[in-house]
Sequence to fold (360 residues):
Amino acid sequence: MILAFELLLFERSLRALLPLTIATSVATALHEVLLSSHPLFPILKAIRPPAAQLPLFAVMGLGIGILVIVLNKGLFLFEAIFSRLPIPQWSHPLVGALGYAAIGLAVPGSLSVGYWAITDAVNNRFLLPAAATLFFAKMLSWWIGLGSSTSGGTLAPMFLVGATMGEMIGIGFAQLFPHAHVQPGAFALVGMGATFGVGARALLTGVVFAAEVTGGFQFLLPLLIATAIAEIVAEIGLSERIMTDKLFRRGYRVDFDSETNPLRMRVASAVMDPIDSPPTDIISFTDRTAVNGSAPKIDHSSFLADALPYLMNPECSRVEVVDDESVVGYLTRIHIDIELRRHASDEIIEPATIKWSRSK
Fold:
């Protein structure tokens, strides 16, 4: 559900949240009845990293951030290489499949989706050479597969690459601090969640998903720390991510930053000029004590944004604000301008400081 909100749904509203919540609840219930209620990558031995090891996860976040940059740029590089090959585009998947198979012959573990390897990683079953071999083989085969437009995914490969990377880092910490009782499996779990979350720029998705599929909810704090540090590093080195790069090449840019519309933060009664006060602008009205009955009306509790469609009409100079059918004030384009400028500058702008007149 969080993945949909972070990557797929660009509307944060009840009409988007409720169907998603219902669908997720039904799917979860059916999964437990038809398949299993156990985690996908179960942790066979309870691991709870002590607070003293949290700085190690912050250091690992630096490594994960660099890994995400390498993963993204490597994929973009392989896509560029295949696009320049002097062969028809339809043959790119064939070449990619041959490369993928060649790596698979050398490292058979790279051919699968890697669920077994992820389970082994979070349970401390890898030695450093084995983890390193699978890490490089899977990363290279993933680049070749997606770069050649061969059918393939992103979640499982990034989970596997992140888990083996975390396993290697955990093994390194265990050797550096032999008396700290470092569990490499803990770093494998955090590594896979942070790698996917930062690589796809779905940070909360990576954190929650890694905890859910392993049952390791005790790792939420290490996951958040590593993901935050990795995201800071990735922001420095990347402008686009795996999920948005191709859209950007086609002229579309996905905005991950959700901002509240400033015109939906203020109600009409808080912004309007009361009917018995001097007008905000210097437009001349024939009668300022009586309100023109043909002017559009909005309720006093309506958002300021509700007046905008009327004021965009050049023939409309003001919108009347009513309370129980009685006109209590009016809004003009000046009020819209004031709120937008106040939001942009984070300062209170007095109406008297802005003058706007109708051209003669």
In short: Strands lie at 273-274, 297-299, 319-323, 326-331. Confidence is low (pLDDT under 50) at residues 280-292, 347-360.
